[in-house]
């Protein structure tokens, strides 16, 4: 399939009210425990989490305070975020899935409340979802202003037109750049300084298409309208200029295929969340496979 024909389905509104309610109850419980153990944070935790009646209101308040400026008021941003989260069940389902993804796939994530308050990858992704909604409503000036604030505050630059699925984990997130015509599937994980860049074809489809369950290592650069297949893994620092087949591993500059893997149980139906970053998980075995594969001098370059 040509890269330009990469299928994209907006994230389905699959998260149940009970699941969201369970997470919100857990967040409030964690905030109470943190306030008791660290009184210096009690006022912050109360104003950001405990004083709110719902997760939507808490997240909207937090994003508004994070992204406001002297001329872009937090109250205006709060209303903007809350309206978007409350009125769009598909968007909100993706937000809840992103929160779960961080907790499930990043062993450094201590709690749901830790992700909500401190994970700039999660926060920047939710701000992007609202900016993308604005973009599709032809409110492009406001969408671009929001993109600019996210870039200034979080160091993450995602064009409002980029389409992103659910269950996304932007780990560390600093320096991530995602271009205008990029498409990212569900349950994708990427680390800091990843670039999904274009080829300079102004006004045309010029950015990568990332399949479900893909893992992109730190500092990787993927350029042009290329397709990264479902479950593929891109090694840290790699430069990818051509398609990568599903469930294969690509590393190097230019990237070459160094082996494939069987379909992971993590991507089977019923598991909502891509590969874990836990070094005791399959990711460590993948890296060992990459190291040994690099010792093989066979010609296994990815071919267009």
TrEMBL record:
Which pathway does it take part in? Amino-acid biosynthesis; L-cysteine biosynthesis; L-cysteine from L-serine: step 1/2
Region annotation Disordered: where it falls in the sequence = 1-20
Enzyme Commission (EC) number: 2.3.1.30
Superkingdom assignment: Eukaryota
- CC annotations in GO: cytoplasm
InterPro entries in alphabetical order: Hexapep (IPR001451), Hexapep_transf_CS (IPR018357), LbH_SAT (IPR045304), Ser_AcTrfase_N (IPR010493), Ser_AcTrfase_N_sf (IPR042122), Ser_O-AcTrfase (IPR005881), Serine_acetyltransferase (IPR053376), Trimer_LpxA-like_sf (IPR011004)
Q: Which residues form the Serine acetyltransferase N-terminal domain?
A: 23-127
The record's keywords, sorted A to Z, are:
Acyltransferase, Amino-acid biosynthesis, Transferase
This protein's record includes keyword Transferase: yes
Determine if Transferase is one of this entry's keywords.
yes
Any single biological process term in GO: cysteine biosynthetic process from serine
List, alphabetically, the Pfam families matched: Hexapep, SATase_N
Q: If you read the UniProt record, what top EC class would you report for this enzyme, in one word? A: transferase
Q: Which SMART domains match?
A: SATase_N
Q: Name one GO molecular function term.
A: serine O-acetyltransferase activity
- State the family named in the UniProt similarity comment for this chain: Belongs to the transferase hexapeptide repeat family.
Please identify the protein, giving its name as recorded: serine O-acetyltransferase
Which organism does this sequence originate in?
Nyssa sinensis
Q: Provide the taxonomic classification.
A: Eukaryota, Viridiplantae, Streptophyta, Embryophyta, Tracheophyta
């Amino acid at each position: 399939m040509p890269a330009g024909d990469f299928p994209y389905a907006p994230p389905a509104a699959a998260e149940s009210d009970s699941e969201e309610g369970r997470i919100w109850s857990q967040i409030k419980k964690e905030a109470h425990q943190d306030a008791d153990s660290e009184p210096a944070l009690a006022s912050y935790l109360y104003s950001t989490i405990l004083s709110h009646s719902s997760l939507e209101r808490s997240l909207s308040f937090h994003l508004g305070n994070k992204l406001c400026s002297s001329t872009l008021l937090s109250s205006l941003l709060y209303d903007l975020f809350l309206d978007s989260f409350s009125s769009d069940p598909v968007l909100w389902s993706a937000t809840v899935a992103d929160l779960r993804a961080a907790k499930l796939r990043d062993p450094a994530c201590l709690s749901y409340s830790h992700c909500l308050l401190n994970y700039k990858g999660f926060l920047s992704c939710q701000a992007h979802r609202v900016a993308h909604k604005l973009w599709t409503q032809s409110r492009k000036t406001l969408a671009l202003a929001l993109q600019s604030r996210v870039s200034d505050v979080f160091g993450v630059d995602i064009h409002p037109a980029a389409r992103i699925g659910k269950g996304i984990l932007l780990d560390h997130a600093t320096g991530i750049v995602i271009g205008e015509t990029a498409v990212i599937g569900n349950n994708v994980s990427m680390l800091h300084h990843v670039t999904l860049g274009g080829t300079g074809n102004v006004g045309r489809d010029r950015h990568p298409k990332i399949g479900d369950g893909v893992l992109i290592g730190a500092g990787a650069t993927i350029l042009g309208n290329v397709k990264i297949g479902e479950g593929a893994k891109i090694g840290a620092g790699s430069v990818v200029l051509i398609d990568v087949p599903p469930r294969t591993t690509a590393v190097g500059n230019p990237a070459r295929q160094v082996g494939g893997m069987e379909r992971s149980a993590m991507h089977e139906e019923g598991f909502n969340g891509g590969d874990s970053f836990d070094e005791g998980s399959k990711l460590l075995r993948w890296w060992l496979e990459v190291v040994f594969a690099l010792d093989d001098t066979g010609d296994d370059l990815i071919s267009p």
